[in-house]
Amino acid sequence: MSINSLIFRNLKKNLRNYYLYVFALIFSSGLYFAFVTLQYDKSMDPVEGSVKGGAGIATASVLLVFIVAIFLLYANTIFIKQRSKEIGLFQLIGMTKNKIFTILSAENAILYFGSLVFGIILGFIGSKLLIMVMFKATGVEGIASLSFSTTAFLQTLIVFICIYALIALMNLFFIKRQTILSLFHVKSKTELTARKLSVFQIIIGICGIALIAVGYVVSGKLFDGDFTSMKELFGVMFFILFSVILGTYLFYKGSVAFLVSLVRKQKGGYLNIKQVLSLSSIMFRMKSNATLLTIITTVSALAIGLLSLSYITFYSAEKMAYNYTGGADFSLLTEKDAEAFRQAMDDNDIAYTEDKAEVYTVQLNFEKILQTELELNFNASMMDTAVISEKAAGLDVAPDELKLTGYNELLQRFMSLKDKGDVVIHGKEKETALHYTGMEDEYPISNYYTMGGLPTMIVDDALFQELKQDINPDLNQGYHWYFGYTIEDDDQLTKANAIFNDLDFEAKDNSESRIDAAKEQKSTMGLALFIVGFLGLTFLITSGCILYFKQMDEAESEKPNYTILRKLGFTTADLRRGIQRKQLFNFGIPLVLGLMHSYFAVQSGWFLFGSVMMTPMIIVMIIYTILYSIFGILSVVHYNKVIKQSLS
User: Fold this and answer.
1) Is the distance from CB of 75 to CB of 169 less than 8 angstroms?
2) What percent of the chain has pLDDT over 70?
């Protein structure tokens, strides 16, 4: 057999066994080329002008290269170990190490660069689709064109040639370092052998679970007022990160084996075939793969968390836009602007409802109702606060009482208030003591008066007139009216928004449109969601492939076990059911742990990004779980093939 025939024969075999590796390489190279094409494409000009899309995509491209490089290098270590006996046989028949390296390099080059070319072609075709998805996510109006970028092609080629050079260098070191005898024992050394669980491992197992639990508990208290300085907050954040990551490593190193040993002990050591194939296997293999599984779990949690936070912001855009405009479709600040808008609506037969409030700014002393003592640069005895009358708010407030409304969720975490207490309003000449009776949810006036989320005071009508006569001119040099307009027919909202934007308002810079505010929010976070989404998808595919390759390796090494179990009387159906449970553990444990990490991370600080947590986070988790499960199903299919081969 000639060398060329040997290369193409091995290539055909590898392509059949490692089709998922080829798919991941095609996907990664295609996505990278598409990202770089977007970076240099003229169609991106509208995005760059609005949300700096070029810089974001350039950063994503670098991260993408890092993810792909780690995946390809790790996958290569698995493949070269699986072919160790083949390399040893080549040496036994007289081939030199340089010749063997040449054969392997030729095989890898054909497989690698063939996948790369195919990936670039798909990336070129898919780049237009990516532009369309980005325009949709960011709300940018533009025409997606399909143009080949020579710069993007050369950049992609250089990057993946460098990665291939690292792979070739790794293979060369492996071949040069190994002796013929060691090559026949490489695979047998890759996993730890089963040993009795030691006291030290039990301690490690308990510590792993405890560290994760402590990290979760502390994350829930991060913004509850227990930590009052920024130095303490950053210190606690580092502690949570350290505790959860170390706990995850110890969980795989000892906790899994400890929990499984408890199950075995409870059953008196008598396990059925499904338990033998699942529990006994993961008890020791997870321990030997603790570092890899910790990285996969941590980065999975990071990907899910970032996707959830991005989608929370994107999902909350509409609600936050309503808060900016005081719960109306449009907000204006002067009678002249309001009259112009009303006239324009009437001329175009657009029905609307009007909300109107006179607004002034006073200083509020709320030290006695401040619950959180976070060290921030503000004076709780003299906080500038907007005040409106009970009539404008549509509420009933007693003369000696005060209500607050429209307090931003983020500010509530940093400056939480008691349910009731005594406060003092400072006017220009006199002070008014009132009893605070609670917080309402509504935002009755626009963002101009609330300065980004501070609460609005609601007082009795008579008291409001008194405060109006005693206002401090230094605090009230701007506007004093809020006009909110809600369009009754949603079908006319777009037309009304166009008219709103065409009118030359006196206070145009501070007049708000809910549609425009939501669009701006989605435009800003749409690009982040787009980039994080595709980076998360890339990591999902690469990490899923790594776990799949590990299962392929384990399946080959366990072939003799299936033959023995069959001779002992167990049926093929018994073996397959055991394998299904094993894969449920192998893929399920990292997934569940990653989901838990991301949940506690998101719930500790979601309010920094939006106003709704559960719905967007659950959507992200469900999609991630479905895609991740595909690799578990593929591994079960491969195991079934191995079982069939071992019994034939």
Assistant:
1) no
2) 83
Strand ranges of the sheet holding 481-487, from the earlier edge strand across to the other edge: 352-358, 481-487, 330-332, 512-513
> What single letter denotes the amino acid at residue 51?
V
In angstroms, the CA 648 to CA 210 distance is: 47
| Per-range mean pLDDT, top range of 346-355, 538-547, 573-582, 597-606 | 346-355
* Rounded Cα distance, 153 and 32, in Å: 10
DSSP secondary structure letters along 63-115 = HHHHHHHHHHHHHHHHHHHHTHHHHHHHHHTT--HHHHHHHHHHHHHHHHHHH
CB 149 within 8 A of CB 37: yes
Q: In 503-558, where does DSSP find H-type helix?
A: 514-557
Quickly count helices (H) and strands (E) in the chain.
25, 10
Longest dimension (CA), the chain: 103
CB 35 within 8 A of CB 119: no
Q: Give dist(CA 204, CA 207) in Å, integer.
A: 5
| 458 vs 572, more confident | 458
Distances in whole angstroms, Cα of residue 545 to Cα of each of 66, 75, 168, 393, 398: 16, 8, 21, 58, 66
Q: Which residues contact 237 (CB under 8 A, 6 or more apart)?
A: 222
> Which H helix or E strand runs over 623?
helix 614-647
DSSP result, 580-619: HHHHHHHHHHHHHHHHHHHHHHHHHHGGGT-S--HHHHHH
For residue 485, name the pLDDT band (cuts at 50, 70, 90). very high
Q: Which residues contact 65 (CB under 8 A, 6 or more apart)?
A: 32, 159, 163
Residue pair 126/37 in contact (Cβ under 8 Å)? The answer is no
The C-alpha torsion from 579 through 580 and 585 to 590, rounded to 10°, is 110
Q: CA-CA distance, 383 to 365, in Å (whole number)?
A: 7
* Closest C-alpha among 61, 153, 78, 71 to residue 116: 153
Residue type, 78: I
pLDDT band for position 459 (cuts 50, 70, 90): very high
* Among candidate residues 643, 587, 557, the one with its CA nearest the CA of residue 190: 557
Confidence check: pLDDT of 287 > 60 = yes
Length of the chain: 648
Over residues 94-122, the mean pLDDT reads 85
Asked if pLDDT for residue 194 goes beyond 60, the answer is: no
**What is the phi/psi pair of residue 609, to 5°?**
-115, -20
Cα–Cα distance, 199 to 460 (Å, whole number): 70
Identify the three-state secondary structure at position 630. helix
Task: Confirm if 203 and 255 have CB atoms less than 8 A apart.
Answer: no
Place of tokens 């980005």: 134
pLDDT per position as a tens digit, 143-180: 556 677 788 889 889 999 999 999 889 888 888 887 77
